[in-house]
Every structure is written in structure tokens, then in C-alpha cells.
Amino acid sequence: MVAQKRKGARTKLREYFLNNIGKILNSDELREVAGISEWARRIRELRNEEGLNILTHNDRSDLKPGQYILVTSKPLPAFERGISKETRAFVLDRNGFTCQMCGVAEGEPHPYDNNRKTRLHIGHIVDKSMGGMDEANNLRAICSLCNEGASNLTLNRPSTIKLIAQVRRASANDQLDILKWLIQKFPNQSRKI
User: Fold this and answer.
1) Which of 172-182 are b and which e, b meaning 16 or more Cβ less than 10 Å from the residue's Cβ?
2) Nearest-10 crossing angle of helices 9-18, 27-34
3) What would the pLDDT profile of 168-186 be if each residue is shown by its tens digit?
4) Residues 152, 40: Cα–Cα separation, whole Å
5) Helix H segments across 38-169?
6) Which of 3, 68, 150, 169 counts the most CB atoms within 10 A of its CB?
7) Where are the domains of the chain?
8) Distances in Å between the alpha carbon of 80 and those of 28, 49, 65, 73, 163?
9) In angstroms, rounded to a whole number, what is the distance separating the alpha carbons of residues 136 and 83?
10) Which residues pair with 70 in a beta bridge?
11) pTM to 2 decimal places
């Protein structure tokens, strides 16, 4: 008898999303499908490395935290994971095995959540989506809590007037892309306009 190969969490999640296109899925059911504690990381890999268009409350205002939806089976452009083990080890050593945002060390209780031990990740200083590379000078050690918020760090937000001025200066194609994104982000509100 030939032993059947067990499916990994990423494969299970991919299949589950593809079988539930357009359906809002919650974190409890996805955790159960994956069968591992790092299920959210597998979802990020599906989104970033395979291009699955999995949206969250950060992408659509009608989704609550912990809700996910795959809107189409057509993948978006994806990024390969390109950080070698050697580069990872170099960056961690260079950064003293501490988070470069909050200063906490690997394995310590996290100062912002004493129930969690600190886990370090390798994060991009300039994100790959903005042209950043997987090179040591563009990488830093960052803890999981800071990493969750790092993508939200920006300069001061522009005023409405400045933002509209920027959109007006953009090409017609870019303006249409912005409109599509806003309709996707605010589907209920866009129907009322």
C-alpha cells in the first residue's frame, strides 16, 4: 500500500479559498482548515508569493477584522520569496537579534503583549511592491507585532485637497485604477453615490 502524502497548510488553504470564491471566510474556520498556528502566514504567502487576490478589512470597508475573501481565481502579479538563509542569518546577526523598531530581542516576552514571545522576521525597508530588493542593505530584523503595523507606517497623511490635486495630476488610466480601488474598498458606499 502506497502512503498518501499529507497536504500542507498552504495547500489546504489554497484549495479552501478556491472552493469558496466570493464567500467571506473567518479566521476561526481558516485556522481549522490549516490545522496550524501559523495559518495567517500561509495566507500572506498565498497572497504575496502566489498572487491570490485575498482581501481583508484593510482592503474593503465591509469586511471586519478576521474576515477574508478571495474575489477571483485569477492571480495577481506575485513576488517570489528571495531571501536566502545566509542573508537572513547575516541580517539577524547585524541587527543583534533585536527588532529594529521596538528593540525587543528574540524569545523575550513582548513589551506590548506579555502573553506573546517575541518572534523576529526579516522585513523590507523599501517594500518589494515599491521596488525594494531582497538585499541585506534593504532588510532589517523586525518582530511580528511591529511587522503587523509596519505596512501602515507612512508620512503624514495628505489633506483631502492635496490628495485630490494629486489624483487630478495623474493620468486618466491611473485615475481609473484609483476609482476601481475605491469602489472595491467601499462597495456599499459606492452604490449610494
Assistant:
1) eeeeeeeeeee
2) 130
3) 888 999 899 889 888 887 8
4) 18
5) 39-48, 85-94, 144-150, 160-169
6) 68
7) 9-72, 81-155, 157-192
8) 28, 5, 27, 19, 32
9) 9
10) 54
11) 0.50
36-69 pLDDT, tens digit per residue, is 988 998 998 898 788 898 998 877 888 999 999 9
Q: Please count the other Cβ atoms lying within 10 Å of the Cβ belonging to residue 158.
A: 12
Residues in the chain, total: 193
Cβ–Cβ under 8 Å, residues 50 and 70: no
Q: How many other CB atoms are found less than 10 A from the CB of residue 68?
A: 23
| Contact assessment for residue 7 and residue 36, using Cβ atoms and an 8 Å cutoff | no
Q: Which residues, in sequence order, are bridge partners of residue 95?
A: none
Identify whether the C-beta of residue 58 lies closer than 8 Å to the C-beta of residue 110.
no
Closest CA to 47 of 27, 26, 19, 17: 17
Confidence of residue 16 (pLDDT cuts 50, 70, 90): very high
